[in-house]
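Below is one record:
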Amino acid sequence: MSLVSYANVPAAALIRLERADKRNALSRALIDALSEAMTRAREDAAARCVILAAAGPVFCAGMDLAELQQALEDLARSPGRTDADIWENALRLGRLYDLIYTLPKPTIAAVQGPAVAGGAGLVTVCDLAVAAPEARFGYPEVRRGLVAAMVMPHLLRHVGERTARYLLLTGEMIDAEAALRCGLVNAVVPAEQLLPQALAWAQALAEGGPQALARTKELLHAFSRQALSVEQAAQASAAPRLSVECQQGLRAFFAKQRPPWVQ
């Protein structure tokens, strides 16, 4: 079964994460599949914008921590092996975020359930976001000994530094209404209205000239350019993954225990 589905709907390409059995966690394969789908939408003349949705009750649980743990264990068991895979995996996700953020066509996230860590990052790189009441948002990376470096600039643009500090430093989750109040999403609608609302926005976006929309997005990007490059942000995200603290955090997460730094 494909990890990502692609369908043409009125005025848009509907791209759906289809890894519901794994809470749509961002594995290497899913990142690659989503990158391919976004590239396809960019070249699709029938798609005036892109709607990003997800199957199952969870929008996206973030990075596939089981895959990360396996990669770290493989590295530890092979003294001659380099950590290049860890760095490359971080860069793969960073490039996906940049692809979505700089796509010349408007993007809409339709969030039906929890969007966590890298999954919340997917929401922030989209131009618009609509959420169901069941949606939750959070960045619990620090609780695993990780750093949410790649999503920081996108989160800051939406919610400002005070809220970003709260979310990134505490790792607490917020509900859909709180996300609406702080500017993380544009609207909260009943679950059955989620896709209709996204489609209504797609029709409104199609009223704009394609070149005008693309140029507007270019200027928005230029006016809010992040301090770090995609590569630098990926490095900042990858480095903590190689730390003892991260390894302790992952072991505690999978054992459903508190990490050693929590008294």
In short: Residues 152-170 form the longest helix (19 residues). DSSP finds ten helices and nine strands in the chain. Strands lie at 4-9, 12-17, 49-54, 107-111, 115-116, 128-131, 136-138, 173-175, 187-188.
